[in-house]
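Notebook entry, structure prediction.
Reason for the run: the old model in the group folder had no record of what sequence produced it. Starting over properly, with the input documented here first.
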Amino acid sequence: MAVRLCLSLRSLNRRRQKLPPQPQKTGCEPSVLSSAGRSNRNAATGAPVWSTSVGRRLHDTGLLPKNTVTICPGDFRGVETPIAQAGGTLFVPWLNMCAAGSATSESVPASAFGSATGGLTAFDAATGKVKWTVKLPHADFGAATVANDVVFTSDFTGKLYAFSTADGKQLWTAQAPAGINAFPAVTQTMLLVGAGTPGLGTIKKPVFSLVAYSLG
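New structure, fully documented this time:
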């Protein structure tokens, strides 16, 4: 499913600058239409502008054999949660959670959640060129959220990460009281994070909660 990114961005910027609104054209201006976090299409024609992949790829194209093989990215498709866009850059959270499958069946082993890894990749929205990539020790179900020059994401164990949008440098981390498989929200002064899963059992007594982190 494609997600339109350009609608309201101009009007949002004008509101931030306290400028009068401008009339909006119907539809989306060509060039900023993102699909599945891995490709850009021309919004007017639907023609691919660029396409790339993130995370591990294995036995994910063509017919599967009769014997069981490892399939990556598997049922979770590599990009499971929303991407973010800011300043001409796409921030794509991804995970490696492989499945086991054959010509007649496919399933995600229970052990896959514990062994899954993740990451966050920044792409030039116009060209698809990778600006930077960071790898995470566990699966990323926490989407990508941008506030000013910082992009936030998390992993399944409840660890929250803040990276520089410019170069991917890790600015800080924080441990939530439970695992995270929700998407952060940003206000003018706070980052709101829902921690509502036991995660991988790394937290002995998880406390399901909504946590507010200061952005100041």
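Summary: DSSP finds two helices and 18 strands in the chain.
The old model has been moved to the deprecated folder.
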